[in-house]
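Running this now, will post back.
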Amino acid sequence: MKSSGRDRTGESLLAERRKALVDKMIVLMETGEFHNRPEWSRYAFAPHNPVSNAVYKGGNRLRLMIEAMTSGYHDPRWLTYRQCQEQGWQVRRGEHGVACEKWIFTQERVKKNDHGVVIKDGNGTPEKETVYLEHPVCCWFTVFNAEQIDGIPQLEENESSHELDDVIRQLIDTSECPVYEKMQGQAYYSPGRDVIILPPRQVFKDDVSFAKTLLHEMSHSTGHEDRLKRDLSGLFGTPSYAMEEMRAELGSLFTETDLGLTLNAEHYEDHSDYLKSWISVLRDDYNELFRAARDAEAIADRLVSNYTKKQELEKDLQGKKVYSHKYSSHI
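Update: finished.
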């Protein structure tokens, strides 16, 4: 089903569905389940389409993550009813899908001159041009999780080969600002000094908690004016502070799942005050969750790109060492 983002069935439906998602998110926060519930599959937090190979991003990613949380899905694959039919698979009777947004920002139209006359090429064919819409259009598509579908091949999970010490080392190595461990009681990113300060690793509950806190502070650091340029001036307890915390938390979660990591642990800091401020901001403006999700994707894209480039460089250097050793052994 498709609908315009400007009419009654489009604009009001968009508001209704976004508010419903925010309400679900608030319930998860109020019950303390948003951050830490071991039985949830972090693998399912990286939703993608196995037919089109599309990766769901931003607000749609949040929709599918929250549906996976509340329905207990472990499979990250989501696809439309038509795609199931084309593959010879079948959505089970009585199953309900998740409606996702698709925004149309451009439109192809026939090219005209200043007098409204159609411009044609040498063969007499009207020329076309792509223009940006003054009012982008929201269309809807519904997807089903693989666990709702009969006949779909079993999920092939790639076993993670990440060693936590290596993960921590590479995260620190790829940080775009210095990371210092100091004997003090807070973990934070300082925008003015452009540094990350963490308590010593040994005072954390475990290395997973250290890695998760490090990733959260690295997410904040992407907002520096020389990087993604977010507002980092908010003081604790203010709406702008809560908005940035939400972005850093979602950004670190997206990064974690995109890297195939499983960091089931709390941060060094207590989340209770953060959650209260997030809930207040979301209740004031439910669209803020979708803006935060958009910014969180940008955070994750930057951190993942830096991390994978470092891995690729290390593999390349290791390959050169092996080649050099083999070559020298034959001299």
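The chain has eight helices and eight strands. More later if anyone needs it.
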